[in-house]
Each structure stands twice: as structure tokens, then as C-alpha cells.
Amino acid sequence: MALASILSAMPDLLQRTLQQHSPDPAGYCRECREASGIAAIWPCATREVAEEAQYIRRGGLPGTLGGRHRNRV
């Protein structure tokens, strides 16, 4: 994923994204909330991109980390 590759080169932003997109006690993302209060189920898509960026930063190949939002073959 191109966004994960870009984010992997920005360590401060990557760490902030991982911290902010964390689960609340009910299993929803603390950061991904609409004005109505509805939240995304955790892990949200942004968290998964950040986790892939962290994986790339540690030497993994882009697009090889699995996740809930990945297409299954």
C-alpha cells in the first residue's frame, strides 16, 4: 500500500497515529468518530495502514502484512 510506505518514512507521525488509533473499552477506535459519536470498530483502517507502515519500517515488504480489511483470495 503506497500510503503505508510513505508513512513508514515519517516515524513521528507513525507513532502518533498508532497511539491515537487505539481501542476504547468497548472495542471501537478512539480517534475515528463521527460528529454523532459513532465510532469505527477497532482496528480501524487507519490503524491497519499504520501497522503496515510499522511492519515496512522494520524491514517487511509493502503489501505482505495481512489484516482485517485485506481482500481474501
Question: How does the SSE layout of this entry go?
Answer:
Layout (H helix, E strand, L loop, with lengths): L1 H7 L2 H10 L7 E6 L5 E3 L3 H13 L16
Antiparallel strand pairs: 1-2
Helix pairs in contact: 1-3, 2-3
What distance separates the N and C termini? 17 Å
State which percent range the strand residues make up.
Answer: 5-15%
Major sheet strand order: 1-2
Task: Indicate how many domains the architecture comprises.
Answer: 1
Q: How many distinct beta strands? A: 2
Describe this entry's structure for a reader:
- The chain is of the alpha+beta class and 73 residues long.
- The chain has one domain.
- The chain is 41% helix and 12% strand.
- The chain has 3 helices and 2 strands; from the N terminus they run H-H-E-E-H.
- It has helices at 2-8, 11-20, 45-57, and strands spanning 28-33, 39-41.
- The protein has a two-stranded antiparallel ribbon with strand order 1-2.
- Strand 1 and strand 2 form a beta hairpin.
- The chain is elongated, with a radius of gyration of 13 Å.
- The two termini are 17 Å apart.
- The model has no long low-confidence stretch (mean pLDDT 87).
Question: Brief description of this entry?
Answer:
The protein is built from three helices and two strands. It has helices spanning 2-8, 11-20, 45-57, and strands spanning 28-33, 39-41. It is of the alpha+beta class and 73 residues long.
